[in-house]
Design brief:
alpha/beta; TIM Barrel; nine-stranded parallel β-sheet; 9 helices; 9 strands; globular
Length: 231
């Protein structure tokens, strides 16, 4: 277990936050299982999820990093980007990773009219289902309502968010070190959320490399959401 200064467990904030957010998600969604924040497990496993792809500037390099570390991830893909880059979607699946539904376009899902939300979720799901089974959805910008959760359930999805202590949306200097710091915050059953999908986010690969390196040093592995729920 990684220790910070004064002997404080650096994963403690994440360990404390995940149960609180789980309760909040249950109150909003009306269900303890339809919106997952973290996965109860005693095993040394976490889930790595990647939003907003696919994109030629990020996805191939991410797949290479994941393969080098022997890690698996759940890729929450944007429908219009999946249509633009079907070969990248196929590469994700062929490499043993999981697909998730991140709706059709990169915008806050909670602002969509109910009919638009339903149609975007279904349209994206139909496109991704050409490649693989898609059991999970994630709202754009991470906000959701009970009505959204009910619609997603009707379409056969479970929702997955993650811990705010394990989120990387923007990439600046020293990304490898930042990835290592994020890994120091992780704990068994935690869900990390990284972002790709634009050329400006190409440094996500360096961050992911640092994250997975430090995670392994701490005796933790990274796998898909579905695999994590089965451990």
């Amino acid at each position: 277990m990684e220790r910070a200064l004064l002997g404080v467990d650096s994963s403690l904030p994440c360990r404390l936050t995940c149960p609180v957010l789980t309760v909040t998600a249950r109150l909003v969604s009306g269900s303890a299982s339809l919106v997952v924040i973290a996965v109860p497990t005693d095993g040394p496993w976490t889930s790595l999820t990647v939003d907003d792809g696919p994109h030629p500037a990020t996805t191939p390099a991410l797949l290479e990093v994941l393969a080098r570390h022997g890690a698996r991830a759940t890729f929450f893909l944007i429908g219009e980007r999946a249509v633009a880059h079907p070969s990248l979607v196929a590469d994700i699946v062929d490499a043993g990773h999981e697909l998730g539904n991140h709706l059709w376009s990169d915008r806050p899902s909670v602002r969509l009219p109910a009919e638009t939300f339903r149609d975007e979720l279904a349209r994206t799901g139909e496109e991704l289902a050409r490649h693989s089974r898609v059991p999970w959805w994630r709202p754009g910008s991470g906000m959701f309502t009970r009505a959204m959760v009910c619609e997603a359930e009707a379409q056969g999805y479970r929702g997955a968010l993650g811990s705010p202590w394990l989120v990387a949306t923007r990439y600046g200097d020293d990304n490898r070190r930042r990835g290592e710091r994020l890994a120091g915050r992780a704990h068994e059953g935690a869900i990390a959320v990284f972002h790709e999908g634009t050329s400006e986010r190409s440094a996500v690969t360096t961050l992911t490399d640092g994250y997975l390196h430090r995670l392994a040093q701490r005796g933790l592995g990274a796998t898909t959401l579905t695999d994590l729920t089965r451990r």
